[in-house]
Write a structure and sequence with these properties.
The protein has 517 residues and is of the alpha+beta class. The protein has 5 domains: 2-62, no CATH class; 77-228, Rossmann fold, CATH 3.40.50.300; 238-318, Translation factors (Elongation Factor Tu (Ef-tu), domain 3), CATH 2.40.30.10; 322-414, Translation initiation factor IF- 2, domain 3 (Rossmann fold, 3-Layer(aba) Sandwich); 420-513, Translation factors (Elongation Factor Tu (Ef-tu), domain 3). The protein is 21% helix and 38% strand. It contains 10 helices and 33 strands. Strands 6-7-5-8-9-10 form a 6-stranded mixed beta sheet, with helices on both faces. A 6-stranded antiparallel beta sheet has the order 15-14-20-11-12-19, with no helix packed on it. A hairpin with a 2-residue loop joins strand 16 and strand 17. The radius of gyration is 29 Å and the shape is globular.
Length: 517
C-alpha cells in the first residue's frame, strides 16, 4: 500500500496531483460512491484518509509541519518594522527610494502613493522593513493601523510647509502607548536655509533627494530599536493585518503577523469570513510556517477587503469583494474594480462616512473586470468604474480614474454627496391611537421648527435611533395636510414603521451640500 502525506485540510486539485489521478476520474469514482464534490472543494484529513484507503488503496498520513522559519536564515528578533508617514508630496517615497536604491514613484499613477508597499533591506545585521504609506486623508484608517503596529515611526515634514503640531502630538501619544519610537525628519533642507525654530526629540534635517543625513537616520533607527528589546510572541491565536493585495496575472497578498504563528493548513479569520491558507512565502521562499513578527505573502488566494485577522482552525467561504448595499432602487448604482487593497479600503471608509441620498455602491473588487463583471453590470443596471489602472482598458467601462482622489472628487461634484443634515423640526409623541388591524397613528406635538411631509425623518428613543424614513400622512383635525408648525398638534403615520412609544422624538431634516473634502 502506497503512503502519502497531507495537511489537516487539502484541496482536491492538490490531492489528485499527489496521488497522480486525473481530477475528472477522482470526481467520478466518488460520485459512484454517492459523494458529490467539485474540483475546487477542500477535504479534511479524516475524510481524505477514509476514501483514499477504500477507493485507491492509499494510506494517508498527516504532514508534520516544522515549527520554525529560523532555518530560513533570518533571526526574527532582528526584524525592524518602520512606518514612513507624512503629508502628500513631503518626500516619503523619495526617502525610501534613496534607502532601497529603487525607482518607486515612476510606477505610481499620478506620482502619488495610493498603495501601502513594503520594502526590505539589511543594515547592521538588522532586517529593516519599511511601510511606504499614502499621505492623503482618504487613507487615514490604513495609515493609523500600520503606524500602530510599527516599531519605529519616521514622520517626514517638508520645511516648505507649516508644521502640523496636532499630528505630531498624535504620533507621540501612539509611540508612548505602543512602546514604539518616533523620529522626525525635516526634509528639503537642500532648498531652504535651516533655522533653529525646530526643537523635536529625535530630530534630523535631511534631503530625501540628495540623501543628506539619511544614513544617520537609519543608524539612529538601529540604536533606538535595540532599546525596545522586542521579543518573539508565540501566543495563539496569531494576529495580523493585511498590508496590501494586488491582482494582476495572479493574486498576491502581503500580510504582517505581529503576534503568534501562522502555518499552512490554518485559517485567516476576518470579521465576516475565514480563508484557508494553502501556501506561505517568506523572503520570496515557500515555507510551511512563519513566526511573528514577520511580513509574508500568500499567492493565488483571494482575501476579503478587510484589515485585521486572527489565525485559527475553522472552515468558511472565500471571496474578494465587499457587497456594501443591496438596495437597487437607488437612482445610480456603481460597481467598482480597483488596483489594490489599500484603494479598496480607502473607498469603503469614504463611502461609509458619506451622507447621500442618490448613489449606491454595490460592490468593490480587486483586479481587472472579466466577462461576468460586465454581465452583472448589464443585468443590475450598474456603472462599472475602474480606479488605479492605466486608462482606456475597455470601452464598456463607464469611467476610469488614475487615483482614488479623482474618483472622490467626481462623486462629490456630480452626485450631491458629502451632504450635511439640517434639522427642520422636531416632534414628540404624546399619544398612540389604533388605526386599522396592523397600523397605528402617533399623536404628536411640534416642539421645534416645522414638519414637512416631504422631508426625511429619524425616530429616537433617548439617544438611540429606532428608524429612518419618511412620513406617509399628516392629519390635523381630520384634515390631511403637508406641513405642521411649532406648538401645533397632529397625527402622523410613518412608512414601514409602527412601533411607536410615548415620549419618542421624531426629527425632520433635509440634506444640504457642504464644501467637498
Amino acid at each position: 500500500m502506497n503512503e502519502i502525506y497531507i495537511n489537516e485540510v487539502v484541496k482536491i486539485v492538490e490531492l489528485c496531483s499527489i496521488i497522480n489521478i486525473p481530477i475528472i476520474d477522482f470526481i467520478k469514482k466518488l460520485f459512484f460512491k454517492g459523494i458529490i464534490i467539485k474540483k475546487h472543494d477542500f477535504l479534511n484529513f479524516e475524510f481524505t484518509k477514509k476514501i483514499c484507503k477504500e477507493i485507491f488503496n492509499i494510506e494517508v498520513k498527516k504532514k508534520h509541519i516544522k515549527e520554525t522559519v529560523l532555518q530560513q536564515g533570518t533571526d526574527l528578533t532582528n526584524n525592524v518594522f518602520i512606518s514612513i508617514t507624512g503629508n502628500v508630496n513631503n518626500g516619503k517615497t523619495s526617502f525610501i527610494e534613496f534607502v532601497t536604491k529603487k525607482k518607486i514613484l515612476d510606477n505610481e499613477l499620478g506620482h502619488i502613493t495610493q498603495t501601502v508597499l513594503t520594502y526590505n533591506i539589511e543594515f547592521c545585521n538588522k532586517n529593516l522593513f519599511f511601510f511606504d504609506l499614502p499621505g492623503h486623508q482618504l487613507f487615514n484608517e490604513v495609515i493609523k493601523i500600520c503606524i500602530y503596529h510599527s516599531d519605529i515611526i519616521i514622520y517626514i515634514i517638508s520645511i516648505d510647509e507649516d508644521i502640523d503640531y496636532k499630528k505630531i502630538n498624535e504620533l507621540v501619544n501612539i509611540s508612548k502607548n505602543r512602546n514604539s519610537i518616533l523620529i522626525i525628519c525635516l526634509n528639503k533642507c537642500d532648498k531652504k536655509k535651516i533655522n533653529n525654530k525646530y526643537n523635536f526629540k529625535n530630530q534630523f534635517f535631511i534631503s530625501a533627494k540628495t540623501g543628506f543625513n539619511i544614513k544617520k537616520v537609519i543608524k539612529k533607527v538601529i540604536l533606538l530599536f535595540n532599546t525596545l528589546k522586542k521579543k518573539i510572541d508565540f501566543t495563539l491565536p496569531g494576529v495580523g493585518i493585511i498590508i496590501n493585495q494586488i491582482n494582476k496575472e495572479i493574486n498576491i497578498s502581503t500580510l504582517f503577523i505581529y503576534k503568534g504563528i501562522v502555518k499552512t493548513g490554518f485559517y485567516l479569520c476576518f470579521k465576516n469570513q475565514n480563508v484557508y491558507i494553502d501556501n506561505l512565502y517568506f523572503n520570496n521562499k515557500k515555507v510551511d510556517c512563519v513566526i511573528s513578527p514577520a511580513i509574508f505573502e500568500i499567492k493565488e488566494t483571494i482575501l476579503p477587503i478587510d484589515i485585521f485577522f486572527e489565525i485559527k482552525k475553522e472552515v468558511f467561504s472565500i471571496e474578494n469583494k465587499i457587497e456594501i448595499k443591496k438596495n437597487l432602487n437607488k437612482k445610480i448604482n456603481f460597481y467598482l474594480m480597483v488596483y489594490s487593497h489599500s484603494i479598496a479600503c480607502s473607498i469603503y471608509n469614504y463611502y461609509c462616512n458619506l451622507k447621500f441620498d442618490n448613489i449606491n455602491i454595490l460592490k468593490i473588487l480587486i483586479g481587472l473586470p472579466k466577462e461576468n463583471d460586465f454581465n452583472y453590470c448589464k443585468n443590475f443596471n450598474c456603472m462599472l468604474i475602474l480606479i488605479g489602472f492605466n486608462k482606456n482598458i475597455n470601452k464598456n467601462v463607464f469611467k476610469e480614474f488614475n487615483t482614488v482622489f479623482e474618483f472622490t472628487e467626481f462623486i462629490n461634484k456630480n452626485y450631491k454627496c458629502n451632504l450635511e443634515e439640517i434639522i427642520i423640526g422636531k416632534l414628540i409623541i404624546k399619544n398612540i391611537f389604533p388605526h386599522s388591524k396592523n397600523n397605528k397613528i402617533a399623536g404628536c406635538k411640534v416642539i421645534f421648527g416645522k414638519i414637512n411631509i416631504l422631508n426625511k425623518i429619524k425616530i429616537y428613543n433617548n439617544t438611540k435611533i429606532l428608524f429612518e424614513g419618511y412620513i406617509t400622512t399628516i392629519k390635523k383635525k381630520d384634515i390631511f395636510i403637508k406641513e405642521v408648525f411649532l406648538n401645533e398638534d397632529c397625527g402622523i403615520q410613518i412608512k414601514n414603521f409602527n412601533n411607536y412609544e410615548i415620549g419618542n422624538i421624531i426629527i425632520s431634516y433635509i440634506l444640504k451640500n457642504v464644501k467637498n473634502i
